[in-house]
Amino acid sequence: MVKFLKIVNAFIIVLAILAGSIKAQDPPKLPTNFPLFTDGISSAPYLVTFPNIHEFHKVRGSITGNSQGTVHVYVNSGATEQSVFLEGVVYNINYVDVPLRTSVNQQRPQIKPGEVLVEANTEKFWPQGTAYTRREIVQFGCNDDGTRCTTEGFRYRENGDIYNVNEGTFNPKGNGHVHAGGAHLDHSLVDGYTTKMLVAPDSEKCLPYGCTEDPTGGWCPNTHKVVLSDEPNHAGCASDCKISNTDAACCRGIHDHNQCRASSQHFSNRCKNSYAYAYDDRAGLRFCKEVPDVIYHFFNMDLDCDWAVIDPDTKELSADSRKCLNRLIQTPA
C-alpha cells in the first residue's frame, strides 16, 4: 500500500506540473471527494453525489465521455426514508485495494433517499488495461459519517458475515485477456441476504441481476432468520453454509466445483437472478461481453413489476421487463 501511495502522489505532482499546458484539454470540472484526488478535475477517479437521477442524466454524457472505465451509478430509490451507506472496495490483480471513501475519510458514503452517488474513472487507479475486481455491500442505520451502523450486527457472526454482495471482475479493452472489454458479474447470497439489490448494466446485451425480495419475509426458514439486537423481528436471512458450516453446504474439501451440490434452496427459489451457493455459476454468474458505459445499482426500491423476464425467442429481456427497469433508470425520452 505504501508503494501504491507513492505512485499516486507522484502522479498528482506530475498532473499539477502539466496542468497549465493541458488546461484547454481538461474535461469539465465536477465535485470530487476521493481521498487522494481532490482537485476537482474529473480526469482522476472520483465520487460525486447528485440530488436525484434526473440531475445525473443532465451531465451523463460529460461523465461517460471523460471517464476511463465504466461509470457506476448507485441509486437510493427512496421507497422508505432510510439512507443507505455504500461499503465498497476495488482491487487489481495484485490486490492493490482502493476503498470507496470520501475526502473526509467517511468510511461509507451516505446516499439519502432519492439521491444518486456516481463513481467514475476507476481504471485510472492502475496502468491502463489492468484487470480489477470490485465488491460492494450496503449498510444502513448508520450515523451520518457512516459509522456505528445497525447492520454491522450482520458482521462477525458465529460463522462469519451474512451480507449479500455485489461482485464484478472487469477486463478492460486491450489488456490481452480472452474476455477483454467484458466483465463477470454476480449478486452473491453465498453468505446471506440482508438488503434488496438490483444491478442493471445499461445495455440490452447485458442482463440485469440481483434480488428484490424482502429479506425479512416469511419465506426465509425459521432456522435461517437472523435477528439484530435492537430489531423485534428477523432482519436478514442466512445461507445454509452460514447456518450449518459443513463442508457440503460450504463447498469445501472434497466438495469442489465438480462435487458440490446445490444448497440454500430458499435463495434459489426466491432470488433466481442471484448466486445462491458457492459454484452456482450456471444460475448466478452473468457475463457481459461488452461492458456498457454505465452500470446502475439500485437500493431501497419497491417494485410492482417483474424486471427479469427473458424473451424465449431473443434470449434478451422482455419488453415489459425493460419498461420496468426504465422506470427505475428514468432515462429522458
TrEMBL record:
<dbReference type="InterPro" id="IPR001938">
    <property type="entry name" value="Thaumatin"/>
</dbReference>
<protein>
    <submittedName>
        <fullName>Uncharacterized protein</fullName>
    </submittedName>
</protein>
<dbReference type="Pfam" id="PF00314">
    <property type="entry name" value="Thaumatin"/>
</dbReference>
<dbReference type="InterPro" id="IPR037176">
    <property type="entry name" value="Osmotin/thaumatin-like_sf"/>
</dbReference>
<keyword id="KW-0732">Signal</keyword>
<feature type="signal peptide">
    <location>
        <begin position="1"/>
        <end position="24"/>
    </location>
</feature>
